[in-house]
TrEMBL record:
Coiled coil: none annotated. InterPro entries: BLH_phosphatase-like, Prot-tyrosine_phosphatase-like. GO terms for molecular function: hydrolase activity. Residues 2-110 form the Beta-lactamase hydrolase-like protein phosphatase-like domain. SUPFAM superfamilies: (Phosphotyrosine protein) phosphatases II (SSF52799). This is TIGR01244 family protein. It comes from the Bacteria.
Length: 139
């Protein structure tokens, strides 16, 4: 498992396994956001078994499937609302962590400068430069 803390209260990761949730909880996270659609993963990583494992570890589990190249306003709103309402740090995962970084940046557009959002993601290998026009529109 590769936890990449974009901020003190939000981290992203490539796909995790059900047995990883105890470690995620021990690392201080209280909420998990699954940004992967079930259609792109094997059945043992689908929403239901992952939710059961996360909740058994004492985590709140939110499903917000993001389709690459087709991020919706609902995806951004769900990510933003979950981050804002979580009583503690949020852990989000997808295939590589990139989509979880993109929706995080879009959720903070207009509140955090575009350069900071892009730079934060870049430190972890996520190139969000292509989002600059959208992020700057919100500045």
């Amino acid at each position: 498992m590769d936890i990449r803390a974009l901020t003190q209260s939000y981290a992203v990761s490539p796909q995790v396994a059900p047995e990883d949730f105890a470690t995620i909880r021990a690392a201080g996270f209280v909420t998990v956001i699954n940004n992967r659609p079930d259609a792109e993963i094997p059945p043992h990583l689908h929403t239901d078994p992952m939710r059961q494992a996360a909740e058994a570890a004492g985590l709140t589990y939110i499903v917000n499937p993001v389709i690459g190249g087709a991020i919706t306003e609902d995806n951004v709103a769900t990510q933003r609302q979950t981050i804002e309402q979580s009583p503690g740090p949020v852990f989000a995962y997808c295939a590589s962590g990139n989509r979880s970084s993109v929706v995080w940046a879009l959720a903070h557009a207009g509140k955090v400068p575009a350069d900071e959002l892009i730079g934060t993601a870049a430190r972890f290998g996520y190139s969000l430069e292509w989002l600059r026009p959208t992020l700057e529109q919100q500045d």
